[in-house]
Structures are given as structure tokens and as C-alpha cells.
User: Fold this.
Amino acid sequence: MIEAVGLTKRYGPKTAVHNLSFQVRPGTVTGFLGPNGSGKSTTMRMILGLDAPTSGHATIGGRPFRQTPNAARQVGALLDAKAVHGGRSARAHLLSLAQLSGIPARRVDEVLGVVGLQDVAHRRSKGFSLGMGQRLGIAAALLGDPQVLLFDEPVNGLDPEGILWVRNLMKQLAAEGRTVFVSSHLMSEMALTAEHLIVIGRGQLLADMAVQDFISANSADFARVRTPDGEPAQREKLTAALAEAGGQAVPEADGALRVTGLPLPRISDLAHAADIRLWELSPHQASLEEAYMRMTQGVVDYRSTADPRAGLQQAPAGYPPQGGAVPGYAPGQPGVPGQPVVPGQVPPGVPAPPHPYAQPGPYAPAGPYAVHNAGAAPVPGGPVPPPQQGHPYGAPGVYGAPHPYGQQPSHAAPVPPAQPPVPPAAAPAAQPTPHTQDAR
Assistant:
């Protein structure tokens, strides 16, 4: 079992973890959640004795990690999958760890098979992908067959098959009576893997409870009820009956009712008593992600903002810029004040764009192979130009054209006057002029 009591860690004026206390019990996969910068990695490092707490203590099996005899056989951890010498092969890396801990070499081959790296065991780890590095880190954590395991983002970089494998591995390890402590930002995966949650924010404990209890405590369950679409009187009658029974019915955009305050059987009985037909009566429970976002919305340190350069790219000819308006009309109007915006409608007075197959579009390249005369026939025997290709960023590939992000140079560089061609120097008479074959 892992236990933290009054754990506090300060780095100068910044407090990373403050008075954190919790227990991670064996036989259960415990998820460790929190926003970026909340202190999850710092807490795990203090549990493993890598960082000394400012105050408080953390124990594993009743002892601090540094006092645990033969710790590699008692505790396994994955904190940083990149903590591997790139010049070593996967097997050499695990073999060095095994020799330091007195683990037999046959165990190295066993864990390589468990994580699926037996075919690349002799490859250098610097050529591993992110997912392969994660598998190697998990193999190192399993090397001593420990009873306590800590994983920090174990599914980072894994493909769907690897994520499913890690999920089943965590459950299997917990079913064997081991203590499994997993940190992750993937709420959907935590909902399928963890049975208990420890949530922190800005270094302080926010929740320590089972997954279902956490979802119920931080979300509002409701029922979706739908009456026949062509009978609005039925919906109004049901709304009145639900309100009289103490429920709240809020109409949704698709015509259904969002009912809170009443269980599903009670809603069904009220509809039956009022002789109201129901087309839908379904429960809705918030996901772990919704509950987590609701709890941690006040302790998030890093929030994204709108990009001030969004929408500055030049729009195609004949269309107003994105988010702009047709000259003479209010923003969002298609040309007639008071009319709703119709997607794809060309405003009156604005010429329609040319047909895409009639002539080159507004983003056609203007390079040496640009078609300047669409009606001209090809010259017999002449070179066939390659197919037209647009600029990689969607803007015309000519100098002086609008910048792909909407910026334009303030002053164009002056074009130097053309210089008469300089005749080539005559070759010495003693040396014959070499002839090269035209590559074309």
C-alpha cells in the first residue's frame, strides 16, 4: 500500500504540493488525475524518494522507499520512458537493470515477451518510436515482479491495440492483489481502467473516491423524454405534470425534454396517468470527463486563448474574408439586411466564382508551367507541361502574392535593370571544347 501523509513540496516561492494525504490500496487500479502543473509527477517522485518533501512523508508498505530492502523487487515505476541510454539495445538496458538488482537474466526475456518487444530486443533504443519506448519502460517496471507499481502516462504514444493491452495489464495486476497507481490525462481511458480516483489541483487534494461516486458527485443526471413531434399539446401536458410532481423539464433544441429531479420510473408513471404517449425515455449520466472538467475548472493554470491571427488568410476572389461582411452590409448578412446567413449563398452584387473545371481557380500556380491561355492548343512535338499543382499553403506561388497568413510586405524590393548578357570567355585553342549531352 502507498500512503502519503501531509505531503508538501516547495520550490522557492512556489508550492508544488500542499498538505496532500491519501492512500492507494492493493487490489485496485487507482487513477491519479489533475491538470497540468497540479503536482502529480512531483508527488510520484516524492513517493519514490527522488525528491525530498519539504514536510510530511510518503511510505510504501509502511516504509519510505529509500529504506525498502531490495526495492527493485518490491516497487516498479515508469516515470519517464526516455530515461534510457540510446546506444543500448532493449535487452541490454533491461539486463543492466536486472544485474544491478540481482534479477536473473531469464526474466529479461520474459518481460520483453510480455510487452511485445522480443522481435526488436537487439535494436538500439534510440531508434524506437514513442510507443515502443513506453513498452520498454513498462518492461523495466515489471522486471522485478513487484507488488507495487506506479505509472505516469503509460499509454502515451501507444496505438489502440497497445492502449487496450495496457488497460488489461493494469486490471490483471490489480486482480493479483498488487497496488497499481496510474496517472493519466485520458479521461475516457481512466473511466475504463480505474476503480478509484485521487484528484488534485494546484497541489491540493480535490477528491478521493470511487469512479462512480466521483461522477455522481460532480454531475447532474437527467432523463431525455420525447413526445410525438406532431402533437405539441402532449408535450405541454407532460411538462405541467412533471412540474406538479416536483420535476423540472427544460426543452432541448431537437424537441425533447431534459427532465431533472425525478427518476425514470416516476416519469413513466406520470406519463401513463396523464395518457401521454412517449417516443423516448432514456437516462443520461455524465461521463468522467464531464465530471472532471466541472470539478477542476477553477484550478486550471494553463488556459488557451483565441488566436488573434485567425481568419487573416486571404479569401478566394469574389468572397468576403472569413468573419467579415460584404461592403455596405452588416457582418454576417448575405446582402439583404435582416436576412439570415445561408451557407454557400453568394451575396447579390458579388460575381459568382468561376467553375472549377472551366479555368484555373484563384489558387492556380503561376510558375513556369502555368496555363496562361486555356484555349491554346499544345504545340505538336513540344514538351508537355506537368499537371498543375497548387502552392503547398494554398496561396499563389508568385513573388509579391499575399502571404499565406494574411501579411503582405510593406515595400516591394526594387527590380534591378536587366543587364546585357556577358559573352562567355573563349576557350584556349589548345584545349578542345567538351560536348555534353542534353539531359532533356
Residues 160-175 form the longest helix (16 residues). The longest strand covers residues 14-24. The CA atoms of residues 187 and 289 lie 5 Å apart.
